[in-house]
């Protein structure tokens, strides 16, 4: 495989050449030949990709120290047979050939002159309206080839209406001078193809191509040093070019995947070798999207249901950070799907191509962060797979195969566990080299069956296994020559670590309660009575004034509202009525609510007047009933331990405090004692 970050391009004329000339990210020309087996990844833009080192399962096994257990099959990456695949290259529009004739210049001049877009440049030397000599040479060379005529600065303005296809790979483009300014290109409104792979052309120098509504092919390769936000690039340069069918932007983008919903004619999108982050949106709204290449980025999140996109045929998401399980691929009828070098928790049992035939399965080399296992006492058994690996999907059903289990995978000198965290490797491509330098930890663990998960297995750590990070290699048992699922999982071991208890959270918190305090006062603000009502916050209430003997309500006798979390206070004001001296009487509350412990009201005797109840709320002196927000509320409870006496004449009961009752008893006793003494 080639080196990470290499970008290759090909002209339509070289698409079928077995040794395709490519452009690397350092700007040098190279031949795409059979790859070195030790190189982890090769990337391309328009042509095919050779294989990464495909893991193969062999019959060599690592012996497990398990009584009566069968040896566990492991394997190491084998050197694959390297073949060069070629991607189908969408042909660019054929350049029309027009016979050369002196009279055609005159006809062309007459045809162009009425145009309002460039009346001032027709007939003028191109050096006056296109200052960059490199751009003039590039355009004149393309037109000379397509028109079969000699195009120069003197007559370039007579070709403004001709179809123009610019490619930096053409001989007319000078890499010595490059192009610093595209001023004047806007007059060529029939520009249909633009391909700039020369890293001397900066993104800042590119024009807004809205002048070319027929532009269908666009390729730009940056210098891999200066990066532009992908959405901003599309807005600045291609916002109006909705006729695009092929879009390739490499080695110069960052940020999230751009919104392409307006480009309904897109067939090929190549955004490989960038620094794109974020998730991959659902592109099912692009009706003719056939090929999507996103390799060598930093995109993450779960994958959309690309199996349901209308005509998607090729998808390459290799060398990103996509995670989670694969979507249901029962309906995916593509010829190629490459997902290696990610963090996917599931793979494919068999990849079936668009012909329904088993084809290359690129589910291998997934990098997963496992769990931390705290081992206590003699129990050193743990399950490294459950909750980390989802399983193997059968494309014929789109579901996890219930019979496809996992085995260990020897990836570093036959070791299937090494000490260390895979995140220390630096990059996915460097992982195997990193693992080769890590000490083997295979002898510290024994693989045993997991009675609760037949698709996985348990590991038993030896008592002397040090605490720390370990990386485990696994593969699906049916891995074959076409490939399969291989994952590396980093887990951590601790011993007898203190466990922090977790307080369970009530998933359905109880309804909040609101409180309404009802205070009844006389015209001097003296509290005659007080009570509370409660209800769920948001519910409505209606508070009625009590009937107090010897008093009548002034103003409204009822108030309605809604319970709030802050609480409300309602004050009813009373005036005294003529009294016969029989004493006052408070009727029972219509609605009362028990108060919290310790909030019993203090009751004072008022010498035959209504009992005064001390409350922390302010007494209202308004004549009508009022509602006051209650920020600090203490509800009032009725006093219980009281003695009752029957009032004369009316048989009404009045509540007397224990102190008063005690004084009466004492005086009676002292008086009786005095009478007895005088009698004696």
Description:
Helix content is 10%, strand content 26%. With 680 residues, it is mainly beta. Among the domains are: 128 residues, no CATH class; 38 residues. It has an eight-stranded parallel beta sheet with strand order 5-6-7-9-11-13-15-17. The radius of gyration is 43 Å and the shape is flat. The chain starts with 20 loop residues before the first strand and ends with a helix. It is found in: Cell membrane; Endomembrane system.
Write the layout of secondary structure elements.
Blueprint: E1 21-23, E2 29-31, E3 61-62, E4 72-73, H1 102-112, H2 126-129, H3 133-147, E5 164-167, E6 191-196, E7 217-221, E8 228-229, H4 230-237, E9 246-250, E10 253-255, E11 268-270, E12 275-276, E13 291-293, E14 300-301, E15 314-316, E16 321-324, E17 336-338, E18 343-344, E19 346-348, E20 351-352, E21 358-359, E22 366-375, E23 381-382, E24 391-394, E25 399-400, E26 406-408, E27 417-419, H5 431-436, E28 445-449, E29 457-461, E30 468-476, E31 486-495, E32 513-521, E33 527-536, E34 540-544, E35 551-554, E36 558-562, E37 568-576, E38 602-604, E39 612-614, E40 626-629, E41 643-646, E42 653-656, H6 658-679
Parallel strand pairs: 5-6, 6-7, 7-9, 8-10, 9-11, 10-12, 11-13, 13-15, 14-16, 15-17, 16-18, 19-24, 22-31, 32-37
Antiparallel strand pairs: 1-2, 3-4, 20-21, 23-29, 24-25, 26-30, 27-30, 28-29, 30-31, 32-33, 34-36, 35-37, 37-40, 38-39, 41-42
What low-confidence regions span 5 or more consecutive residues with pLDDT below 50? 1-51, 58-118, 579-661, 674-680
How many distinct beta strands?
Answer: 42
Mean pLDDT: 76
Shape: flat
The description of the largest β-sheet is: 8 strands, parallel
Strand order of the largest sheet: 5-6-7-9-11-13-15-17
């Amino acid at each position: 495989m080639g080196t990470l970050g290499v970008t290759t391009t090909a002209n339509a004329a070289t698409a079928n050449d077995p040794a395709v000339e490519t452009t690397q990210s350092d700007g040098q020309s190279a031949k795409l030949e059979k790859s070195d087996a030790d190189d982890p990844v090769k990337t391309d833009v328009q042509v095919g990709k050779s294989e990464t080192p495909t893991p193969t399962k062999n019959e060599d096994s690592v012996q497990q120290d398990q009584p009566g257990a069968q040896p566990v099959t492991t394997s190491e990456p084998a050197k694959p047979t390297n073949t060069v695949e070629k991607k189908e290259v969408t042909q660019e529009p054929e350049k029309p050939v027009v016979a050369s004739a002196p009279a055609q210049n005159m006809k062309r001049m007459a045809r162009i002159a009425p145009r309002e877009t460039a009346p001032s440049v027709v007939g003028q030397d191109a050096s006056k309206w296109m200052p960059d000599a490199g751009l003039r040479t590039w355009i004149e060379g393309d037109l000379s080839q397509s028109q079969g005529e000699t195009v120069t600065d003197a007559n370039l303005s007579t070709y403004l209406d001709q179809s123009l296809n610019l490619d930096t790979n053409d001989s007319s483009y000078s890499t010595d001078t490059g192009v610093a300014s595209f001023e004047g290109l806007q007059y060529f409104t029939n520009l249909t193809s633009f391909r700039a792979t020369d890293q001397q052309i900066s993104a800042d120098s590119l024009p807004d191509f809205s002048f070319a509504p027929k532009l269908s092919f666009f390729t730009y390769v940056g210098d891999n040093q200066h990066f532009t936000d992908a959405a901003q690039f599309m807005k600045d340069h291609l916002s109006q070019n909705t006729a695009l069918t092929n879009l390739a932007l490499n080695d110069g983008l960052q940020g999230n995947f751009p919104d392409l919903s307006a480009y309904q004619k897109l067939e090929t999108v190549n955004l490989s070798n960038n620094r794109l982050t974020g998730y991959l949106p659902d592109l099912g709204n692009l009706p003719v999207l056939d090929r999507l290449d996103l390799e060598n980025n930093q995109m993450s999140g779960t994958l959309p249901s690309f199996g349901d996109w209308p005509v998607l045929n090729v998808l390459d998401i290799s060398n990103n950070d996509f995670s989670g399980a694969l979507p249901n691929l029962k309906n995916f009828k593509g010829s190629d799907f490459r997902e290696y070098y990610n963090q996917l928790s599931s793979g494919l049992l068999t990849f079936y191509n668009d012909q329904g035939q088993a084809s290359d399965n690129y589910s291998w080399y997934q990098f997963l962060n496992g769990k931390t296992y705290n081992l206590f006492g003699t129990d050193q058994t743990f399950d490294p797979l459950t909750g980390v690996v989802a399983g193997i999907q059968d494309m014929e059903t789109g579901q996890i195969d219930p019979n496809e289990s996992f085995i260990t995978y020897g990836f570093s000198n036959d070791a299937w566990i090494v000490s260390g965290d895979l995140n220390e490797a630096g990059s996915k491509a460097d992982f195997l080299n990193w693992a080769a330098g890590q000490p083997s930890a295979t002898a510290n663990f024994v693989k045993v069956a997991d009675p609760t998960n037949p698709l996985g297995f348990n590991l038993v750590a030896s008592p002397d296994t040090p605490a720390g990070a370990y990386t485990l290699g696994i593969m699906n048992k049916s891995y074959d020559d076409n490939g399969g699922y291989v994952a590396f999982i980093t887990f951590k071991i601790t011993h007898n670590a203190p466990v922090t208890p977790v307080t369970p959270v009530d998933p359905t918190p109880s309804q909040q309660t609101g409180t309404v305090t009802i205070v009844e006062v006389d015209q001097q603000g003296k509290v005659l009575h007080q009570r509370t009502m409660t209800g769920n916050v948001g519910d409505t209430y209606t508070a009625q004034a009590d009937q107090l003997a010897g008093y009548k309500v002034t103003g409204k006798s009822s108030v309605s509202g809604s319970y709030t979390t802050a609480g409300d206070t309602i004050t009813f004001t009373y005036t005294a009525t003529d009294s016969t001296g029989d004493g006052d009487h408070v009727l029972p509350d219509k609605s009362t609510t028990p108060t919290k412990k310790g909030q019993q009201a203090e009751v004072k005797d008022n010498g035959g007047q209504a009992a005064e109840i001390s409350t922390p709320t302010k007494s209202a002196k308004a004549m009508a009933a009022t509602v006051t927000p209650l920020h600090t509320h203490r509800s009032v409870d009725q006093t219980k331990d009281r003695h009752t006496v029957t009032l004369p004449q009316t048989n009404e009961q009045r509540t007397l405090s224990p102190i008063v009752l005690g004084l009466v008893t004492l005086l009676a006793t002292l008086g009786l004692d005095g009478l007895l003494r005088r009698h004696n």
